[in-house]
Structures are given as C-alpha cells and as structure tokens.
Amino acid sequence: MSYSKSEKKSIFKFLFLYYGSSFALTFIIAFLSYHIYYLSILQTQEEKMKSYALSLSSKIINAHMMSEHFEFKTHELYLTTFLNEQQQPIFGDKVLEKFDLDKERFYKKDNALYLIDSSTHNHLGVHSIVVIFPNSQILFKSLRYNIAGITIGVLLIIGFVGFFLTKMFIQPIRNERIKLDDFIKDTTHELNTPVSSLLLSIEAFEKNPSKNMARIKASAYRISDIYANLTFLLLGDDIENSLEMVDFGKIIKDELLIQNDYIEAKKLEVSCDVKSFYFLMDKESAKRVVSNLLSNAIKYNKPHGKIEISSYEKTLIFEDNGIGIKDEFLNSVTKRYARANSYAGGFGIGLDIVNKIAKKYNLSLIITPKNDGGVRVEIKF
C-alpha cells in the first residue's frame, strides 16, 4: 500500500528539517575543521622554516667567528635569499621582489609563505635571511581533499540514516492508519449485513410476520451490539458506571436468549452449566465480556458445531470446536484491530474490550487453542 498524502507531507517535512539541519551542521563542522587544520599546518610550516633559517644563521655566525667560508646549498622546497642592511640581496637564490622588513616575520602572500629572520646580527654582512615557500598550496591540497571526502561520506551516511529513520518513524503511524482503514471498512461491512437484513425483513414483514420479526430483532440486536462495542471502545474510560454485585449466571442466560437467532442460524449446539456467582463491577462491563466471548464462540464456530459454557470457583469458561487460533497469534489476538483470520468477518475489537475489562478489574484472561480445533477461553474472577 502506498503512502497517503498526509504521510508523504509528514515525510517531506521531516526530511527537510533533518537534512537541512544535519547538512548545515556538517558544513559548519567541516569549515571549522578545515580552518583549525589550516592554522595547524601553517604553524607547523612556520616552525620548520624558522628552524631552517636558524640553522643557516648559526652557520653564518660560526663561519664569521671562525673566519671560514660559508657555503650555501639550495633547499629542495624553499627559496632562500640573504639581504644586507639596504635590503639588497647578497647571495642565495635569486628573488626579484623586495621585502618590507618592518612587516610581521611570518606571513602568507598569494600562494607563497615568507619567513624573515634577523638573528645573524650582520655577520658576513647578512642582516636578514628570507625563506620562501613558493608553492604552499601543496600543503593544503590533501587537507581539502580529506575534508571534502569526509564531508561527502558523512552526508551520505546522514542520507541513508535519514531514509531509514523516516521509514522507522512513519511505519508505526502507517500501520495504525492501515488498521484504522481496515477497521472502517470492516465496520461498514459489519453494519451493512444487519442493516440490509433489517430492511429486507421489514419489506417482507407482512408475508411472514413471526419469521421476519425474529430477523428484525436479530438485526437490531447486532446493530445495538456493534454500537455498544464501539461506544465502550471509544468512551469506556470516560463513562462513569456504578459498581454493583453482578450475577454472571443471569447475564449469560440473557445473552443466550438475545443471540439465540444467531445460534439457530448456524445450527449450533449450546450447553450451559453456569451457576450463579456474583462479582463487584459495573454491569455494562460484565455484559461486554459475556457478549463478546459468546459472539466469538458463535461467529468463529463451524455449522452444527458445539459451544460449552461452564463455571467453577468463580471461573467462567467458554469452549467451542470452531476454527481455532494458531499459536503464533495468541499474543496478538487481544490487541485492538488484531484478527487471527478473516473467517466470518469481524473487526478485531471484541477480545481487546474483554482484555481491557479484565485488566481494569484484575481478572485473569486465558485463551487456549484446543487440540481438536476450537478455543477455550477462561475468565478467572
């Protein structure tokens, strides 16, 4: 099933906020990282150029003091020139530009790094040593590639994570929406059957009043039962019902009379051995428990099947020999809209209501599949 318009809109908003904020944060971190590493590389290179200049200065001073010849060897990376007090090159690599000795001692101009060292103190006529790294861009080339590669990698990870997070977050909402859609469809179908039967019975009432009156009563009860379940499902916690000592023996007998037409329609054999016992709870909840358990025993039974209702020590038991429940569905049949099968319709709220009432009054609900088919349901009070 494809996503609905509202789901697509929610996905788009989430992805826009997620990707927008994540990408912006990633680019800010990448920029700051590049700036930090850039300054670190500059500082490291300054130290290297200073060390090289100081080594030359030391050799110059030593040559002057020892009256020895100073031999300059060209560096593989740096251009080096030696200036006198008039800033005229004395020897070293040929450099065409002039230098402002009052500037900072280390600076970057265009793509070159410059270091000016004056530690020679005019030995051998050298006032300043200028060390130039002419193509400093090679220092930052790998940094740019590394930062760009890491940024792209992080963005790809964010993209994949965003995709899976979206599916993970939207899936529960989508599942609930699908359940709600199915619930509405099933409710419409469940209502359509008794309403259609009711209309047909009213039209044919004069031909066979007694038979059609029974159908009208059965259809009216079915509509009333659906309404009662939906009301309890939606408003059960908000409705204040007074507690009383409810006689479950009487409620079961009343429900058997009310649903007798459904029992006869399926030609079911019902045996009821329930002694009167009382429990303190609201009467509507007691009716919902009995009505839903009996309705399920009828609905999911086979034609000419059996239903056995019994009780002992305040334990109410419903047994049928219908289609049963597979073991893998036992943990989910009491959840709202959950259905173990599509047999005989229904929309998966009966056992959910029974389970909620059981939890409210600290009752024990036990559902057990029978080996010969059918289900055994126990309610322990």
Q: Would you mind describing this structure in some detail?
A:
The chain folds into two domains: 5-140, no CATH class; 242-380, 2-Layer Sandwich (Heat Shock Protein 90), CATH 3.30.565.10. 52% of the residues lie in helices and 17% in strands. The chain has seven helices and twelve strands. The strands form three sheets. It has a five-stranded antiparallel beta sheet with strand order 2-1-5-4-3, with helices on one face. A five-stranded mixed beta sheet has the order 7-9-10-12-11, covered by helices on one side. Strands 6-8 form a two-stranded antiparallel ribbon. A hairpin with a 5-residue loop joins β11 and β12. α1 (5-65) packs antiparallel against α2 and α6 (283-299) packs antiparallel against α7. It is rod-shaped, with a radius of gyration of 45 Å.
Care to give the gist of this entry?
The protein is rod-shaped, with a radius of gyration of 45 Å. Helix 1 runs antiparallel to helix 2, helix 2 packs antiparallel against helix 3 and helix 6 packs antiparallel against helix 7.
